[in-house]
Amino acid sequence: MTPHISYGQYFMISLFGILYNISFATYLTYKSLIIRNNWSDTVKHPWLLVVLACESMYFLSSFISLIQTLIPPSKRPALKLTDDGPFPNIDIFITCCKEELAVIKDTLLAVLNQNYPNSKYTIYVLDDGKDENLQTLCNDISSHCIESGDIMNLKYLSREKKNGVPHHFKAGNINFGLANSTSEFVVILDADMIIHNDFLRHVLPHIMNVNDVAYVQTPQGFYNIMKGDILCDAQPMWYHNVLLHRDTINSPSCCGTGVMFRRSALDSIGGFKVESITEDALTSIYLLDKGYKAVYLNHMLQMGLTPWTFKGYLAQRDRWARGALQLIHKTLFQVLLNPTSHLTLYKRLMYFWYFGNYIIYIVNAVLLTTFLVILGFNLKSFPGSDDDGRRLLFFITPVIVCWRLYWVLEWNHIPNAFQQRNREEQQFWWITPYMCEMILSWMFSCFNKVKFTSTGSIDGKTRSGCRYLYNVWVIKWHLLLSFGIPSLVLYRLYRLDLNDCKEVIFVLGISLFLLLIAIYMFIPVYVVIFMSTICPSKRRNLLIYDSKGNPMFDAKRTVPELSIYMLFYELMTWMIPIAWIIYFVIAYKNVDVNVCEDIRSLDKYRSRDKILT
Fold this sequence. Notes:
alpha/beta
């Protein structure tokens, strides 16, 4: 069952989203006033301004997220063509580029098994890797269909790539397929995607008789995700939350596979756009700018493979991020800031934030570095006087508590919600070093050639077919942070001046946050050093085949298996709001004097122990 957001859930999410943003804005306003009133002192501690700037960026991100959240999620009905039709002609493109032959074969068999008149759809295997074995496979399948009496239209196409002439990766491959086909409706599938046998019947009604709909996108599912979805491969927030809100205003992004296009719409913009390696998102923008609408059908109808190796995973994320930077470089002035664009202000903001979302990783790195410097060098951690710091507790605690409740509610409708919520939060931090390296690389060399690694392909360096320790250099920052942060926190707590009670509270707050980040940073270390329990050689064991050997789509296999270890992460994430609630109560009850006296007495005992030692 594909998850949906009820109206009751939508109301609660919106309520806590508003409360969170109001409390965040109030906190930032009060903190800014403290800094302004103590400017001469603040300039002596410039890192406090850095923290404020980072917090302001997080507020901007949360505010944009709230704007999206306040738009009700779509409740699109599940439609399906009856046996009476009509059945228009459809072209199905399977885009290939050196994927494993057995993977492509399963995709082909699933497409051939559609509950749709055989004469009404043509399958095009678009091979960008010039694989002779794949061509032979297509010929063998065609011959077998003819021998069995089935009329199937299966064509193998491979374009010529001339040296020195840009071939534009997947976008060029799709445009080659468009130039050699004729049907009005075009389905695009990645080479590893197994679709439901009623895929065409479910998708067609949403585009067939609605002339201003350019494409219909369906969510992606994956059947080779490790137990616990340790790398957050499932991306449930994107597929079962973000796109539902965007569908309400007919502007969901194309995700590159499991999507049906109207050919005339693509022809109106000159086919797939080639200026970004995330050609799907860029093409979406130009179609919406042309005045077309898009549909997101939140019905799981396809399942494929995530990269088997950590290196392949990083290559995929790197490609997405570089594509986002290329996208904003191409569309900022041509579309997003163009007053003649058909895009509404909201749509422009959402697509601009498709790029801006990656900038937050830079903010993560700056804030983390600043906190480490504050902790390591015993620097002042809050602006103004002790009384100002005490009052800040009244403002920062509601922010942290409201954020946690808002975040929990946003995930409530998703299967294994607490696991997937934690995985998304963890990835937000542990992927930061990789995203920062990519962004800096792109900024200093915009013309770098991008190595295209197709999703679902298997890393050629894999020996046993499992994730393994292939290069410790890849996790250099994570090794440093996952072991360095706890060491720094212990050292700082040992050297802490317990006579300064307000400083103790803020140092403890920062330390707790940093320890949580250290735990997150250990995740890539674990993935690289310890092997995955799922190997490419066992891929077929993850699927169900019918009596004819055709792979069968099963939506249940796309739901990541729950890991009991997630209870530990869930407990850790609640420790921060609980700690700040305690600080808040101490300040509200005006018992901080007594607490500080107790802390000072502890400091005396610690000093006496040092002397005795």
